[in-house]
Amino acid sequence: MNQLSDFCLASSSPRRVELLKSIGLEFAQLAADIDETPRPSEPSEEYVLRMAIEKAQAVLPKLEIKMPVLAADTSVILDGKILGKPIGREDAFSIWRGLSGRNHQVVSAVALTDGQQLLSQISVTKVRFKVLTQAEMEYYWNTGEPADKAGGYGIQGLGGIFVEHIEGSYSGVVGLPLFETCNLLKEFKICQVG
Ligand SMILES: Cc1cn([C@H]2C[C@H](O)[C@@H](COP(=O)(O)OP(=O)(O)OP(=O)(O)O)O2)c(=O)[nH]c1=O
């Protein structure tokens, strides 16, 4: 644990680490291990927000050196249904058949807490996919890229060629909406930009 860090990122996601580093922030990192099962009929935005908050709250008591904890969660939402990471090949293909040629939403939430104050924000981005062919799905699955990503794709990688259009936050789709994240960090006087 870095004593000079201003905050801790409660995440195992290399994408979140890269995005935070890209805006020049230094931070410690400790992954959160929580139950990510949605509650019955839980609205998608409530679920994503709850996940981000629970990740931050789970890591806070585990820190040897006390500092604020930042966490995030990202889900792909199609027709109100929460799509997480594919559990295998068949699941990925079924997700992609649903996304093919249509709009879906990517909901990302960020939460920041020091145990006394808890701040959170949500980012919703509309994404339109091209019509996917069976050959594209086969090829994409075999790259290994889809496995650990919500909705089974990475806009920042090969999955980007399936994306016709987005309306919202690119960083939010990748997993950490930078505008909202910086807003929270500014409240804690951590992000001094702007
Ligand atoms: C839609 C999309 C998701 N993703 C990734 C971001 C997240 O890492 C992942 C969604 O899963 P999350 O459960 O939000 O995060 P995680 O398990 O990867 O990491 P942690 O909980 O430890 O912070 O999907 C992309 O990388 N690109 C994309 O285009």
UniProtKB/TrEMBL annotation:
GO biological process, one term: nucleotide metabolic process
Stored Pfam families: Maf
Predominant place of localization: cytoplasm
Active site (catalytic residues): D73 (proton acceptor)
InterPro entries: ITPase-like_fam, Maf-like
Keywords, sorted A to Z: Cytoplasm, Hydrolase, Nucleotide metabolism
Compartments, record wording: Cytoplasm
GO cellular component: cytoplasm
GO molecular function, a single term: UTP diphosphatase activity
Catalytic reaction list: dTTP + H2O = dTMP + diphosphate + H(+); UTP + H2O = UMP + diphosphate + H(+)
Function: Nucleoside triphosphate pyrophosphatase that hydrolyzes dTTP and UTP. May have a dual role in cell division arrest and in preventing the incorporation of modified nucleotides into cellular nucleic acids.
Entry's family note: Belongs to the Maf family. YhdE subfamily.
The protein, known as: dTTP/UTP pyrophosphatase
Organism: Pelagibaculum spongiae
